[in-house]
Amino acid sequence: MSAAGTTPRSKRLLLWSVIGFDLLILALPTLIVLGASFTAGNIVTFPPDGLSLQWYEKVVGAYELRQAFWRSLWVAVVCTLISLPAGTLAAIALARWRIAFGRTLQVYLLLPFTVPLIASGIGMMLLFGRIGILGQLWPVGLACAVINLPFMIWAVGASVNALDPDLENAAANCGAPPVQTFLTVTLPAVMPGVITGALLMFVLAFNEFLVSLLLVDARIVTLPVQIYNSIRSVITPDLAAVSVVYIVVAALAIRALDKLVGLDLFLRSK
What we know:
The structure is a single chain. This protein is mainly α. 78% of the residues lie in helices and 0% in strands. The chain contains 13 helices and no strands. It has helices at residues 2-37, 54-61, 63-96, 102-109, 117-131, 138-162, 165-173, 178-189, 191-207, 210-215, 223-231, 237-260, 263-269. Helix 1 (2-37) crosses helix 12, helix 3 (63-96) packs parallel to helix 6 (138-162) and helix 6 runs antiparallel to helix 9. The longest helix has 36 residues, at 2-37. The two termini are 42 Å apart.
């Protein structure tokens, strides 16, 4: 009796121990960065050498970092605006329509998953240089949209597959033309996937480093490239404070996803 009662308790203890260990390992890098950003010393240490906001003040007052932040934000906005129509329409077409060479087209649209980023970046660098747009900022957003488009298709495709086709057929039978059916039935039904994909594209573009490094010059560096240029000389606590920006952006994206879509619905759709 005692052994039978102990076994489930032991299993629960083991399970929660493993979960707690995994959560600690996942959270440890974030905790170290947060702690290092508040240090009162002049070097990156954890635990921090006292507590101070001096490095956040330095980041706010650094003109180059502020400009790099706004450039990364602009790149993320451009990427999202391009990905929204392209990824949404591609996902709906691949899931709903019978088109010639549909499987080949699907593989082609998901190809960026298999191509190394360095290869994609070099290819776009040569292409953009050929057509005369290399060195401008908006093509970086375009490049981020191209390499991350599979995430948008994946997110919207999950919602499309969960959509009951009878809803669209009912609208058509009531006399609604295809465009009206799309705007009033299909698009609202897949909106959770659209929102999820848009947030993913925004965060991925905001964080993109390798492709940005190949496509920008010294005048228009994005925040990841600016951080990379800084750590090549010395790693100081102000870089930890800048890294907190990425943590905040990710937290805001998750918060927005929870408010607009719901994390439970998002996880079930996957």
